Amino acid sequence: MALIDINSKPQHDWRADRRSTKISLSALSYATVNSVFTIYVFLELRMWFWGSESTLGTFIPPANMAAYQGGKLISILAIVTVAIILKSGQILSQSVSIIMLLLWCGLSILWSPAPIDGIIQYVLILVPVFFAATTARLFEAEQQIHLLAKILALAMVFNIAFTTIVPSIGIMSDYHDGRLRGLMMHKNHFGAYSSFAFCYFWQTYKIFGIGKYLFLALFAIACVAFSGSASAIVMLVLAITIQLLATAVAKFSTADRKPIIVVLLVILPIALWVTNIFRDDILLLLGRDPTLTQRSGIWAVVLDYLRSNPFTVWFGEGPSGANGNAELIRLMQSLSGYSQVTSTHSSYFDIVISFGIIGLTLFTYLVAKTLILAISVLATTKDNIILHCCTLCIQLIILFLSRNFVTSEAGLSGSFPFLIFVCAYFTLKSITDQRAG
Questions:
Q1: The whole model's pTM is what?
Q2: Reduced to 3 states, what is the DSSP secondary structure of residue 171?
């Protein structure tokens, strides 16, 4: 890949190589694989029709849930089949840190109180990894990004079109009156998706120079605003901040970037400390109370539960631990002051409950290793495309970590945020392989 200036325009025609893959595929095979990928990502986004909303939750029509579960099963089988045919295990086998984490998650099924549910949840963890490994098997780093950008753009079109046609469902009512959720369960899901999508759209525009992605990036910002999700607004601010910092760092020579990045990393904990001092004021500015909508009460109950269960603290209760623990749910509902709560509202607590501190340590090691790798490549590359790819990966990882803090819908699970994280991981692996080769 030729070295080009950071401010130069792309030097290849994206239309000419949009179907180029590492493995030779016929036009039909290429279309089939892309269709499988698209359907799977849509299902990970949980885009399906929802029923009437009450103040404290959303009623899911049984037919909708059955259709979703059936579609998810078919998409899982399709992804696994594609992964086997394309021998994606070759790439996965080279990723020791992610294999260690997956092995521990699988091992925890042995002491799970609900092993069948544990196996199901474990499969749901494996499939995003297979998906990301398969895209890395087929495409170079920038093509992987373009693939996800196209899928997320199509999802954006479906969400907005549905909201326009059926606003009574696409726009929430009652407690969250007027908040945009599209085809998704909740405004927070739609807001988080829009924040991740913004990152993909912006970097795809910078890499390929395709004008429609600039429009989509700006539109994604509007979607975050209309969702009214405080966590999504924070994610978007983080994404834009990272973009501005990466752009500023890239203007320096590679020799000067390392000390600048070190200074930024020193400033980071200071900034977090200052943010914590003014935490309550910031939350009020975002329209949230200091309890984070009663999350602090829920977390106190979870901590008490963990203190009384040392085995769970270290080893966890298996892949279904966080969602299938009836005792913990009962305690949260009776002691937190939030009678309708069904989750810990923090993926980090979910990881500890399911896989223990050992699992959390392996997870943290994987995330930290991936983030450090992205920063190190960003500090040394002179290639414009690689620079934008690494910036995107840093954005996705930071947004993934922030999303984990306030929701159980991310973390180490079969979820869209986890899918985005493993895609960032394998995109970085493709970059390092390209540089080494």
A1: 0.89
A2: strand
CA-closest candidate to residue 339, choices 376, 370, 297, 285:
297
The bridge status of strand 53-54 relative to strand 57-58 is antiparallel
Q: How many domains does the chain have?
A: 1
Q: Quick one: average pLDDT of 28-53? A: 77
The confidence score (pLDDT) of residue 15 equals: 38
Q: How far, in Å, CA of 366 to CA of 362, rounded?
A: 6
Closest residue by Cα to residue 372 from 265, 263, 254: 265
Q: Is the pLDDT of residue 14 over 70?
A: no
Burial of 303 (0-12, 13-18, 19+ CB in 10 A): exposed
Q: Which strand (E) or helix (H) includes residue 356?
A: helix 347-380
Sign of CA dihedral 286, 348, 353, 317: positive
* Tokens 């493709």, located at residue: 430
> What span, in angstroms and rounded, lies between the C-alpha atoms of 185 and 58?
7
C-alpha–C-alpha distance, residues 225 and 349, integer Å? 28
384: containing domain: 27-436
Query: In the prediction, which pLDDT does 306 show?
Result: 92
| Residue 12 domain-assigned (yes or no) | no
Element holding 186 (H helix, E strand): none
Place of tokens 């099924």: 109
379 located within any domain: yes
pLDDT of 68 over the 80 cut: no
| Alpha carbons 351 and 365: distance in angstroms, whole number | 14
Please work out, in degrees rounded to the nearest 5, the angle formed at the alpha carbon of residue 229 by the alpha carbons of 223 and 231.
Answer: 115
Segment 175-180 shows an average pLDDT of 81
Q: Identify whether 17 is part of a domain.
A: no
For 190-242, how does the pLDDT look when each residue is reduced to its tens digit (9 = 90+)? 999 999 999 999 999 999 988 999 999 999 999 999 998 988 999 999 999 99
Measured CA to CA, the distance from residue 66 to residue 329 in angstroms comes to 24
